[in-house]
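Input/output pair, single chain:
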Amino acid sequence: MEIVEMSDDKSLMQVQATRAYVKSVLENYWTLATIGYKPIHPLSNFLKNTNLRLDEQEEKEALRLASSISELSILEASYRVGEIYTQRLPKQLRAQHGVYFTPPALSNRLLDNIEQAGFNWTEGRIVDPACGGGAFLAPIALRMKQNLKKKGFSDLAIVKHISTNLHGKELDPFSAWMSQVFLEIALSKELAESDYELPIVIEVGDTLICESTERYDLVVGNPPYSKIKLNSVTRKKFSRSLYGHANLYGLFTDKALSMLSETGILAYVTPTSFLSGQYFKALRRLLSIESSPVSVDFIDSRKGVFSGVLQETVLATFSKRKQHNKGVSSTLRVLNDSEVQVEHNGDFTINVDCDAPWLIPRSPSHAQLLADAQENHSTLSQYGYKVSTGPLVWNRHKEQIVSKKTKTTLPLLWGECVSTCGKFEHKSDKRNHEPWFRIEGDIDNWLVVRESCLLLQRTTAKEQSSRLIGAIVPDEFIKAYGGVVIENHLNMVKPISGADTIVSVNTLQFILKSKVVDTLFRMMNGSVAVSAYELEALLLPPLDKAIEIHRALVDGVGNEIIQTMIRDSYSGRITKAA
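Output:
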């Protein structure tokens, strides 16, 4: 399905105007980029030309932009044009289709990682299954060309080899055309010298529904990111990698694995959410069974890297060779569109057939802690606790959310009732929030919490000093009102029915807000969400050590000593409480 077929008339006009402008930019850029080459082959045709024509002022702007980007490298130029294209598209369409272009700094880094994984640019078949405007195909063509020249290939042999072994697939025909254009510009000198016209190597279509049996030695790209509703046929097709909601990049990862040869390499730019999210547990299991991790690069800041993308991203490389299950973690600091600074964080191991969250070091200081914690830890269930989400979805009960207390109301607890310093306060400061919930009989009993519990905020950002922000709802408060109603932006940590809670809730709160446990959570978490699923998988101090930590708290031992006790508990040591 073409991108414009899903839009209204106004959006369609905006898409056509965008295409007309970008087409003019590329036509002028092509002329400037091929000056001096003979013979000069014509620019590839965009088969679905827009009916719109630019006015004189827009044509001048397009020429100025083409002149400006002609002074950039091919990779920088393709990124700039891709950015302009996406920014001019309707915002709703951009988000719906997950259309975002990859900065050259990241595409080059991912290609470096592919080389480190053992890929040879002079051999093997390559495909980008969602190639967009050519963020990967053009730089891959340049690397192939450079390596083929070292082997003594002629210009004609180079372009023929590349046209045979490098392929792209793209849903949006205009993006596919842009990708073909930049691929031809990357090879323009060789095409002119050999008097060879590059065949169309970008197939317009939906990779996810394609039933081709072709196999590739490298599947690379930046697949679209967005949730998608699947029909029963598609859900069955991708059932091995699905759990709950489907996301496009998860489907593209599954598809990539089925497109790879027996020793193939998968290299994607993806959101970090697949590393820990519950909806990606089946995908993690599939990846761990069918491939081995080679490298995972975390991007230090999401701001300014992908325009409009609010989630963190990683560069992930996997190999089907299955020689090991150990990968290398790094952090990338994006200095500008073309440069990154790389910091090595350490190795990590993913167990085979593993659908649990993947813990990966995010800084060099994490590696030893992670190794220790994976060897020595307990979980919330072993402490005697379970986690669930606050049951109230407020917009389904608007009429029952009231500002005044009556005989039929109970306190309504919102996210702001939990302060960043770990204190509980019944308040409703935010817009549309009120402090009371009206109970309308037994039908609402399932909403009422009648026991003290530890509340944790469900949404926190990595920029915050702590990701696990919690507060205990006091027994006295519960008893005073006979219960409370908890909104679903809070997690509830409660004792497991019938189980012994060996660790007190106060000790548990202290452990969760400790620097060490916060670090372990950050190594696992891949989004702003703090999910019940992740909390139940969190590596906590071994139970026997937690009991010693509890005693130290009761005895009034200082905070710094107890923080050290928590860190040492994972290594099998325990600091003596002074």
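The first helix runs from residue 9 to 33. The mean pLDDT is 90.
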